[in-house]
Each structure stands twice: as C-alpha cells, then as structure tokens.
Amino acid sequence: MPKTILLTLALLGSAFAQPTPDSQLTVDGQKVKLTQVYAYATEGFFDKSKDDTVVHLTDRAVPAVQVADTHALRKMAEDGKLSFVQETINAAGQIVNYTIGHRAFKALPSGGSTEHVFEGKRAGANISGKVFMRSPGKFFGTTFDYTAAFTSPVQPKK
Q1: Buried b (16+ CB within 10 A) or exposed e, 49-69
Q2: Residue 75 domain boundaries
Q3: What is the distance between the alpha carbons of residues 49 and 21, in angstroms, rounded to a whole number?
Q4: Is residue 102, in this structure, part of any structural domain at all?
Q5: In 103-128, which positions are buried (b, 16+ CB within 10 angstroms) versus exposed (e)?
Q6: What are the tens digits of pLDDT across the range 58-92?
Q7: Which of 12, 39, 59, 139 could form a disulfide with 152 if both were Cys (CB 3.0 to 4.6 A apart)?
Q8: CB-CB contact of 83 with 58 (8 Å)
Q9: pLDDT in tens, 110-119
Q10: How many domains does the structure of the chain reveal?
C-alpha cells in the first residue's frame, strides 16, 4: 500500500477517535467536555533515539493541518475557539511536556510536571490509556484540572 494511502487512513482514523464520555477539562470551575483525540509520533524530547507520542484532547474537531501546529492551537484557544489538553508522552510512558489551552488563561500553562500522569500504553500504531492531574493546578490565579481516557491511532512521524 503506498505511503500516501496509509497516511490518509491514519489521518481519517484519528478524526474518528474519541475520548470516553466523562473526559473533561475544568478551568476556574467551568467544565469543558473533551470530545476528540488526536495522536502523532515525534522525535523524542529527551531521547532522540526513541519517539515520543503527542496526544491532543480537544473540545471540538480540529482540521488535520492544524493538529500538529502548536501556534495555531494556542491562537484558537486564546480566541475562545478551542479548549485542549496536549501531552507529550515518552517511550517509557511518562508525560514529559504538557500544554493546557482555554480562553480563561492570559498565557497558556505548559511545561513538565510530575502532577500530570499517563496510565496506559502505546502498542504499535495505537495509544490508549488515561491522562489526569494528581491535584488541581493554578497558573497566574487560574485553576485547572483534567481527566481523560482514550484510545487513538498514532500518526507516523513526518
């Protein structure tokens, strides 16, 4: 099967993957249901010899060309057009980076923290599990928390 067909199938598959119904992001007490999940492989954040997996959990569909565009996602969140949780998960199953997108933030919280947890696995071309925070976070006075369970195909590294 040609690579372009496989890539198209991967993109279509990710468009239909959905988190479980109780997946949500809470920002300053406002609950946002996370209804979509997208995942793609990328070069390892700390270990370049192993791929990391970036998982986006969003409150609405995101065009395929914007899924891996961090600047576009941030802009959409700042404009109130998207709420999201982005996790970068290394080969050992640790979250090594996160970003929370919501219009309530003046600047989006991001970075690394042991408060953000992934329980699950990446097996072949799929990732499944649960992401959550051990306790609610606070960023410049804005509180946030999330939990989401999901299964998604992983788009190959470009």
Answers
A1: eebbbbbbbbbeebeeebbbe
A2: 3-153
A3: 35
A4: yes
A5: ebbeebbeeeeeebbbebebeeeebe
A6: 999 999 889 999 999 999 999 999 999 999 999 99
A7: 39
A8: yes
A9: 999 999 999 9
A10: 1
Which helix (H) or strand (E) segment is 37 a member of? strand 36-43
Tokens standing for residue 94: 């640790």
Instruction: Measure the CA–CA gap between 26 and 73, rounded to whole angstroms.
Output: 18
Give the residue carrying structure tokens 């372009």.
Answer: 4
Token look-up 């279509």 returns 12
Residues in the chain: 158
Count other Cβ atoms within 10 Å, centred on residue 23: 24
Q: Which residue has 């239909």 as its token pair?
A: 16
DSSP character at residue 6: H
